[in-house]
Amino acid sequence: MSERGKVSMTIKDLLLRSTSHMELMMEDTSDLEPVEQGEAAYPDSAYGSSPVDTDTEDGITLSSSTLILTYNEELMHKTILVGDSGVGKTSLLVQFDQGKFIPGSFSATVGIGFTVMLLGDSAVGKTCILVRFKDGAFLGGNFIATVGIDFRNKVVTVDNMKVKLQMWDTAGQERFRSVTHAYYRDAQALLLLYDITRKSSFDNIRAWLTEIYEYAQKDVVIMLLGNKSDMAAERVITHEEGEKLAKEYGVPFMETSAKTGVNVELAFHAIARELKHRNIQQPHEPKFKIHDYIESEKQKSNCCGGIM
Ligand SMILES: Nc1nc2c(ncn2[C@@H]2O[C@H](COP(=O)(O)OP(=O)(O)OP(=O)(O)O)[C@@H](O)[C@H]2O)c(=O)[nH]1
């Protein structure tokens, strides 16, 4: 076994020993990825570019930064890496998740970060929206339902400030509902999705909103997304119906397509802006209005090919 392999085993053993029969979630407490590496600082890192699960020799399933052992919704363990800047939190996480070391110069992470959670019925396209935003790709082919919860990070720039979005991809299936409830209160924003080709997923939005009001923070930012807008021939929910429902609850709305990318960037950028403005309001700066921002960006993209 190589030296690197040995290191990987040691770290994995250490973590597994304290978390048998649990879902293990690892989170680096660094606030932002290195600025000079661009928006997605670790495109193939522990923050996960691939949603494909890999089986280890232990019969364990590794999914991005989430390690699923025997599923038991009563036992969920979140491990947070803390320590001084530069001690190697990110490197340890990547070593554990991918069995490799990220060489290169160290860049301290700075800035602000927020948690965005994706909710909605199973198969509405939550994972695909996330992958489209994070990696600019579409996950076609066989549908693999999310188990429990998974997370990915992406850094976006808002008014010259780096804002890290930690995005939680939740399982839409009913049996995972109690797992996801535990995470609602940590989210500053929620993207609630339905599938424009499946009426039941639209009808269930009211139930999702009831859950949100029960479990989420009172001032959480909510956005309603009608996904799969590319499937015009199979559409059963009109744009107007989506808009009407959103208006009733006073939340912003747009239709998206993880397949073509339409409005995906816009949805996340609008959320990032809203959260940044809520947290850092410059004196004399006009109040940010998310509805107006979305409308003006939509118009820009209609006429000049702006944000996809
Ligand atoms: N045509 C089209 N298909 C999509 C789109 N988004 C997702 N899909 C497909 O819909 C299926 C479900 O997508 P997922 O992203 O896995 O759904 P999910 O909401 O994460 O499902 P759970 O993990 O069970 O909660 C997959 O087969 C995707 O390829 C889209 O915008 N357009």
From TrEMBL:
<keyword id="KW-0547">Nucleotide-binding</keyword>
<keyword id="KW-0460">Magnesium</keyword>
<dbReference type="Pfam" id="PF00071">
    <property type="entry name" value="Ras"/>
</dbReference>
<dbReference type="InterPro" id="IPR027417">
    <property type="entry name" value="P-loop_NTPase"/>
</dbReference>
<comment type="similarity">
    <text>Belongs to the small GTPase superfamily. Rab family.</text>
</comment>
<dbReference type="GO" id="GO:0005525">
    <property type="term" value="F:GTP binding"/>
</dbReference>
<dbReference type="GO" id="GO:0015031">
    <property type="term" value="P:protein transport"/>
</dbReference>
<keyword id="KW-0449">Lipoprotein</keyword>
<dbReference type="InterPro" id="IPR005225">
    <property type="entry name" value="Small_GTP-bd"/>
</dbReference>
<dbReference type="GO" id="GO:0046872">
    <property type="term" value="F:metal ion binding"/>
</dbReference>
<keyword id="KW-0653">Protein transport</keyword>
<keyword id="KW-0479">Metal-binding</keyword>
<keyword id="KW-0813">Transport</keyword>
<dbReference type="GO" id="GO:0003925">
    <property type="term" value="F:G protein activity"/>
</dbReference>
<protein>
    <recommendedName>
        <fullName>small monomeric GTPase</fullName>
        <ecNumber>3.6.5.2</ecNumber>
    </recommendedName>
</protein>
<keyword id="KW-0342">GTP-binding</keyword>
<dbReference type="InterPro" id="IPR001806">
    <property type="entry name" value="Small_GTPase"/>
</dbReference>
<keyword id="KW-0378">Hydrolase</keyword>
<keyword id="KW-0636">Prenylation</keyword>
